[in-house]
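Exam revision sheet. Question 4 asks you to relate a sequence to its structure. Input first:
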Amino acid sequence: MKNPSPGVYTVDEPSASRGLGPLIPWCQSTNERRFFLTEIKAKPLAVRHTCAYIVRKPDQGHLYRGHRSMHRFANPARFLRLSAVLLPWCAGATVILTILGLWLSLFGSPPDYQQGETVRIMYIHVPAAWMSLFVYTNMAIAAACGLVWKHPLADLFAKAAAPIGAGFTFVCLVTGSLWGAPMWGTWWVWDARLTSVLILFFLYLGYMALVNAFDDPQRGMKAGNVLLLVGIVNVPIIKFSVDWWNTLHQPASVVRMGGPSIDPTMLTPLLVMAGAFTAYFLSVVLLRVRTEIAQRKIQTLRLSVAGDGAVTDGMQG
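Answer key, structure tokens:
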């Protein structure tokens, strides 16, 4: 029954995933249970051993096609299969690019004529700064998908990516201080770039605290998604702060209209390290999303067992 027509279907809950194709039990909270299909949207009408599913198709054909496309990879089972294929490649790319990038950064690039060997901090600092913006932007996109289209994996992605993005931002701040101390003569200044990056770090921490602040995980996810969408305004501020205000940071030297102004001997290891950081992010976020899915399945089984126990106790009483 891959493409069931609109109507009501009653199936046994343990065999739901086999009876209606790619149907995956999804438990968001103790009071809410959702089921997602690839081609249709199903809503549970009961949560006992036998569950009834009512299947509806929107009247607008183009909206249905867009909805179906949006949820194509919303199926956790499909994601698990795809991530199992991608994960070894991402992990291998992380190892290879990291080794190559470190060798080029330490031995294959010359020291700067003004900064000397201190410039090698750039090969960690700049990719970490790029990734802090990249991760947050993708989290904000996932937040929009979760709020508007109720994409089940979007919330999990945002939750899984938050600690990684916070780590990149922390590395950016620490290496920036280490680099700035000999160059600027101070560990910290309250200029626009540093302050906005520090705000980004607090946005990461605030999101992680907010999603775990509610007893109902769904409410926490919604509150966190709103925070992500509000905080996205900080991303262009970080990017253009060196152009809008007078800061100690130099203007953009890689992504600029006239092309990169940095020498190729320094640009190559910088881009390789950026690729290594990106591959690392993909590897870890895939692992974390897979872990979140496994935890949700465990919660669903526990609730099912608890429900069975309550029904049995009620019958005996």
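Marking note for examiners. Residues 7-61 form one domain.
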